[in-house]
């Protein structure tokens, strides 16, 4: 098992050049989407070093992030539903990362992203099961690493550097490695495998310090411990007083902490062997520079120990430990069905789901809702548009392909469809591209969150020539004045103001500022709604449910008599579906309210938005003059 470590190092620059050509746009979008959540970054072994770099990059951009092992994350379940996750794995198949994945998806995380250096892995198969999950696979041309993470780890460092900055100055990195090689050789002549190394670091160098520790311990090259420069000053320095003969220091320095390192080394006894791994590159390139230099240190430490770090040999008990199964330790039994548990969890969250009395009470409400929705005879289904019929990430492409055939089937069976959206004519134009004209009278669209409604054939709608209501005009003037100079776009329509926030760094603050500005003017007589991409200001008397009367009138014309089902994604105020999903019979494909008798999310584990809508529509059964929603409890 393994590869010669020296041979792996010869491929380092091939790995960097390969990363420089990768298309990372999708990964960048996923990372940007996590700005308003806590982020957990999970990895084992060498991949954990990459997690530390990604953690630091997130935190330098104002995002709270934490690197953990798959086992550590199991003790953070109370935070899962409010967090985003990045799983970093070279092979995508070790038991620990797979177990972590399965455990996280059960807790309804905000997002679950996987970054893997192999294609078609078990992680890929898991990811394909869940719409909330995204996977980014990069098949590194240098092939699988030896015993230690080398080129895959370097590739991760380079990928994260490109996502947050630029990958540049590769020739300078080669020179730095050449320069450090002589220094490393001199250092290695002063120590042997019996020495304990102290690796000191700060900030951006932590990821490299953790990797040196990982490699030296995993390959049994020497004893080693790590500390940041100041924590080292809180007692750990005493080691050098009591054991000066078999101790040495490795200092990681860069442009930020070089002076701190110099002050530290001046205080320490001169007889203690030391080496400085320095980078004059700007972060995050400095981390790549230091990683490459540290690889050469590990190579020489291996020679001192007469061990090839790339193939040190693995004992039988080591293989058993690597493949150890421990799933049963964390398995939890529930007194309610899996679907009930997931649905109730979405209502009350992780802190209350473990309360037996609350769970029992909510399970009764759940069962009552299931009984009600299964018994109703449906003749109309009313949908939100963005996030429900089309992905918010692909909103300009319109209704998702997996939904189109389901909608047409409803119309072919003689029933009605309503679309209640914050959009204008773009929703109508997209629907007209795939719905046959003969069904236009049975499809109603309520534009701008219910301000104006008509059937699919009424191309004159929405009527932008209408005069805007006074409350909307007044709100627009206030917002235009208050938001001048901020990274936002404001669009005025007759029945709606749409505000899109272009700033990635201050989106949360700007949303609060906009809402506070409107709410501070009690006389405006407007309401505030949010979608994934905008804030909408609409008149107080406007509602997405205004579409119901239009649908009911058409039902009379067709001789239909039944109930309507509403499906949307933003059921909790200020979500723009909170009124739509406040109807007596409604399903959410994402956010739910605390209403006990409506606005339930019954989607299977890991499904949300468009995929959840498709699942709901797959439960529709057609009868002569009505539809039924049939689902198991």
Automatic annotation (TrEMBL):
Q: Which SUPFAM superfamilies match?
A: HAD-like, SIS domain
Specify the SIS domain's residue ranges.
Answer: 27-169
Q: Which InterPro entries match?
A: HAD-like_sf (IPR036412), HAD_sf (IPR023214), SIS_dom (IPR001347), SIS_dom_sf (IPR046348)
Any single biological process term in GO: carbohydrate derivative metabolic process
Q: Provide any one GO MF term from the record.
A: carbohydrate derivative binding
The name this protein goes by in its record = SIS domain-containing protein
Q: What is the superkingdom listed in this entry's lineage?
A: Bacteria
Which ranges form a coiled coil? none
Organism whose genome encodes this protein: Christiangramia oceanisediminis
């Amino acid at each position: 098992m393994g590869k010669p470590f020296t041979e792996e190092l010869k491929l380092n620059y091939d790995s960097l050049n390969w990363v420089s050509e990768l298309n990372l746009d999708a990964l960048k979008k996923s990372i940007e989407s996590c700005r308003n959540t806590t982020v957990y970054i999970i990895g084992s072994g060498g991949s954990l070093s990459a997690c530390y770099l990604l953690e630091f990059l997130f935190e330098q951009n104002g995002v709270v992030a934490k690197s953990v092992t798959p086992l550590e994350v199991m003790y953070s379940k109370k935070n899962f539903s409010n967090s985003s996750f990045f799983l970093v794995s070279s092979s995508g198949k070790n038991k620990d990362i797979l177990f972590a994945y399965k455990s996280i998806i059960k807790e309804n995380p905000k997002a679950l992203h996987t970054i893997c250096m192999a294609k078609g892995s078990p992680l890929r198969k898991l990811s394909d099961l869940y719409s909330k999950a995204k996977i980014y696979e990069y098949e590194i041309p240098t092939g699988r690493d030896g015993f230690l993470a080398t080129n895959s780890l370097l590739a991760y460092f380079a990928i994260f550097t490109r996502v947050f900055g630029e990958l540049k100055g590769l020739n300078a990195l080669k020179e730095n490695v050449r320069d450090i090689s002589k220094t490393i050789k001199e250092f290695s002549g002063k120590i042997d495998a019996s020495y304990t190394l102290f690796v000191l670091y700060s900030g951006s160098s932590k990821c490299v310090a953790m990797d040196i520790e990982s490699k030296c311990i995993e390959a049994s090259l020497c004893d080693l411990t790590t500390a940041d420069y100041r924590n080292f000053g809180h007692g750990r320095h005493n080691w050098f007083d009591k054991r000066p003969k078999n101790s040495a220091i490795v200092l990681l320095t860069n442009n930020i902490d070089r002076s701190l390192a110099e002050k530290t080394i001046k205080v320490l006894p001169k007889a203690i062997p030391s080496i400085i791994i320095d980078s004059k590159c700007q972060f995050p390139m400095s981390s790549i520079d230091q990683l490459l230099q540290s690889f050469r240190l590990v190579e020489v430490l291996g020679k001192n120990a007469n061990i090839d770090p790339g193939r040190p040999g693995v004992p039988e008990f080591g293989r058993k430990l690597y493949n150890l199964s421990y799933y049963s330790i964390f398995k939890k039994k529930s007194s309610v069905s899996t679907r009930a548990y997931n649905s109730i969890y979405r209502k009350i969250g992780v802190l209350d789901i473990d309360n037996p009395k609350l769970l029992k009470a909510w399970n009764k409400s759940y069962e009552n809702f299931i009984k009600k929705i299964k018994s109703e005879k449906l003749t109309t289904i009313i949908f939100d548009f963005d996030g429900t019929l089309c992905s918010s990430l692909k909103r300009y492409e319109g209704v998702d392909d997996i939904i189109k055939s389901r909608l047409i089937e409803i119309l072919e069976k003689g029933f009605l469809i309503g679309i209640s959206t914050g959009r204008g004519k773009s929703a109508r134009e997209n629907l007209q591209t795939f719905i046959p004209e003969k069904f236009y009278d049975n499809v109603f669209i309520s534009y701008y969150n219910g301000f104006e409604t008509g059937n699919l054939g009424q191309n004159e709608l929405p009527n932008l020539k209408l005069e805007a209501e006074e409350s909307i005009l007044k709100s627009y003037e206030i917002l235009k004045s208050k938001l001048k100079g901020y990274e936002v776009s404001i669009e005025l329509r007759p029945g709606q103001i749409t505000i899109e926030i272009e700033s990635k760094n201050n989106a949360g603050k700007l949303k609060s500022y906009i809402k506070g500005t409107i709410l501070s003017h009690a006389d405006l007589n407007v309401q505030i709604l949010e979608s994934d991409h905008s804030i909408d200001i609409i008149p107080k008397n406007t509602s997405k449910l205004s579409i119901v009367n239009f649908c009911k009138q058409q039902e009379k014309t067709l001789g239909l008599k039944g109930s309507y089902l509403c499906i949307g994604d933003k059921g909790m105020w200020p979500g723009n579906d909170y009124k739509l999903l406040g109807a007596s019979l409604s399903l959410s494909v994402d956010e739910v309210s605390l209403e006990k008798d409506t606005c339930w999310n019954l989607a299977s584990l890991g499904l949300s938005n468009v995929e959840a809508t498709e699942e709901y529509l797959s439960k529709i059964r057609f009868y002569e003059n009505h539809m039924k929603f049939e689902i198991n409890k």
